[in-house]
Structures are given as structure tokens and as C-alpha cells.
Amino acid sequence: MASNLQISSKNNLFCSSFTANFTLYFDYTYNGLRDSEGMSIRDEAKDILGHELVVHAIPRMVGSDTGNAVDNENKIRRELNNGENQQRAKESWHNE
User: C-alpha angle 82/95/76, rounded to 5°?
Assistant: First the structure.
């Protein structure tokens, strides 16, 4: 999305104006996550919900699985169709 912003101000003391051109880029499917090969990885709402349930909520209700959030999430990702089943890069600090 490109936009042109023009702002003007006039009063008895001074007259000034400026124009700023800017472009905004949005990618709602990527938030900086990387797969095990360093490539960007899909992170849509369905991925986030799966992560929050399998990685945090369910282990708190029924007990720990692997102890590591990314290891748990990768179990889900392995079940997805080819092209959507990239394995998330390890994060040793990300616990259940």
C-alpha cells in the first residue's frame, strides 16, 4: 500500500507545509519464525492455536510431553500436508 501524506499549517505567524511519501508492507502470515533450515515458516491463526493448545494448555491439564514447546509443536507440523509441514527451528528456552 503506497500513500502520500500532506500536512499544512497556516496562521498569522508562519506558513509551513511538507509532503512525505511512504509505503507500508504487511505480511500477516509471518512473524519472524524460522524452520529448521532457516527459512521463514507459516504462522497463521490455526498454527498459533495448535501451538497454544498442544504446547501450553494440554500439558498443563494432563502432564508434560517433551518439556520443550517447539518439540511439541513439531509433532503437529509433521502431520500437515507437504508444503505446510516444515519443522520449526529449535528454541531451547521455549518450555511447555
Answer: 20
